[in-house]
Amino acid sequence: MSECLTRTYADPAAADLAAEASSDTFSPHTHRVTLPSGTLSLTLKQSALPLEDLLDFAVRRNPKRGFLFVSRVLGKHIPVSPATAQQTYTALAAALPALEQPHFIGLAETATALGEGVFRAWQDQQHGVLLGKRGTFQTTTRYLTRRPMLLRFDEPHSHAPAHILYDPGPVARQATELVLIDDELSTGTTLQNLAAAWLAQHPQVRRVVLVSLTDWCPRRAELAATLGVPTDFVSLSRGHFEFWPNPQWPQPTLPAVTGNGADKTELLAACSPRYGDLPPLPDPAALGLDVTCGERVLVLGSGEYQYPAYALALALAQQGAAAAFSATTRSPILPGLAIHSSLTFNDSVRDGIPNFLYNVQPDQWDRIVLTYEGRCSPDPHLITVLGGHAQALCLDAPLPKEALSTLGQVAGV
User: Taking Cα atoms as reference points, which of 354, 356, 346, 245 lies closest to residue 300?
Assistant: First the structure.
């Protein structure tokens, strides 16, 4: 098993981020966090960043789990600069073991941008070493479409447990290494379930790599033994935690979060990482976006559709804007602690469930760009609340309606 960010870095930014991360130079620190729902005790054994720079804490509206680690480098529940995210992607990619023919999978909803970012950073770091073998990438999804489904698996502690993985095509399915990316590794069960399901159908895979921002997994050796192939763990921080629930705290009611299970083919982008495709990155000029130097611009993704928002924010920052990105989510979180503000609105995929946007104060931005895919136009109420300086922008087109008849029925297993 690999250690946490202990590999040699060719990129100076990645080297800075990973400094003092090995067990030889990092002294374990224990942190105690009091939440309304209970008490967290965290012991960091290794970390590339101080805990306060890496994450914060909140309380889930979920009786299954009364706490939430809120990342400060992810760009999901707290807006972050694209430079911060880029540095994170680069560091994690540089810490990966040598890979020959890998397939990367980023987990929905939270880690779709993280997964794609690590994959693209890994590609950039190869410098032609792979002689044309550039690896492949896809994300899991919560949405049913008419594309061929490969497998389903569960995320036990999640508010929305069922994941779907569509068939990414023959090149991806010939991969000899599997790289799974999530924002957090707690028990390891979710990634173990996915890895086991993939290995059952692809016996040629000879290595599994589990990548996360924070790795709290207490059963790494057991997990690797269960998978039966060499297994590496790569993360920005590693340690363990314990949580003692507050028996006096009334457990919250979980709102509807699982959707209606309807066919979303007509709504979602036709070219998507869900299916193993990488659409072109957004070009501000082609989109008619012109920013001024220092203009405060917030680019928002929508649910699983996150990486294009990061890429657009990065492009605008390169033009001189003070840009940041974040995303809407179906994840219900109670206000307080790391959650300074919360907006609630209708989902954009016709699931009839609430979605949320956290830690966005509209008057702190000169411009807000809410990106979306296909026909998933955002709730007009959200645009109104964000203010007159907000606009919705579709970055990836849906399948033409006349082409829908060429597809079969909604995928099944």
Answer: 356
Beta strands in 107-155, from DSSP E residues, in sequence order? 136-139, 149-154
Residue in the block written with tokens 């109104």: 384
Are the C-beta atoms of 48 and 21 separated by less than 8 Å? yes
Measure the CA–CA gap between 327 and 108, rounded to whole angstroms: 13
- Where exactly are the structural domains of the chain? 12-245, 279-396
Angle between helices 307-318 and 82-94 (to 10 degrees): 110
User: Which amino acid appears at position 384 of this protein?
Assistant: T
Distances (CA, A) of 219 to 2, 222, 312: 14, 5, 38
**Axis-axis angle for helices 112-126, 82-94 (nearest 10):** 60
Cα 248 to its chain centre, rounded Å, is 33
In this structure, what token pair is assigned to residue 301?
């993704």
Grouping H, G, I as helix, E, B as strand and the rest as coil, residue 199 is: helix
How many C-beta neighbours within 10 Å does residue 16 have?
Answer: 12
Express each pLDDT in 49-106 by its tens digit. Answer: 999 999 999 999 988 889 999 999 999 999 999 999 999 999 999 999 999 999 999 9
The residue among 274, 311, 269, 310 whose CA lies nearest residue 172 is: 274
CA distance 47 to 173: 34
Exposure class string for 339-348: b at 16+ Cβ within 10 A, else e: beebbebbbb
User: Taking a C-beta distance cutoff of 8 angstroms, is the pair 117, 88 a contact?
Assistant: yes
Per-residue pLDDT tens over the stretch 234-261: 999 999 999 999 999 998 888 888 889 9
Question: From CA 46, how far away is CA 5, in angstroms rounded?
Answer: 9
CA–CA separation, 121 and 114 (whole Å): 10
CATH fold for domain 12-245: Rossmann fold (3.40.50)
CB atoms within 10 A of CB 36: 14
DSSP E strand boundaries for 113-206: 136-139, 149-154, 162-166, 177-185
Taking the alpha carbons of 168, 169, 173, 176 in that order, is the dihedral positive or negative? negative
Half-sphere exposure for 199 (CA within 13 Å, toward CB): 22
Dihedral angle of Cα 151, 155, 159, 165, to the nearest 10 degrees: -20
Residue 85 near residue 78 (C-beta atoms within 8 A): no
Q: What are phi and psi of 245, to 5 degrees?
A: -65, 150
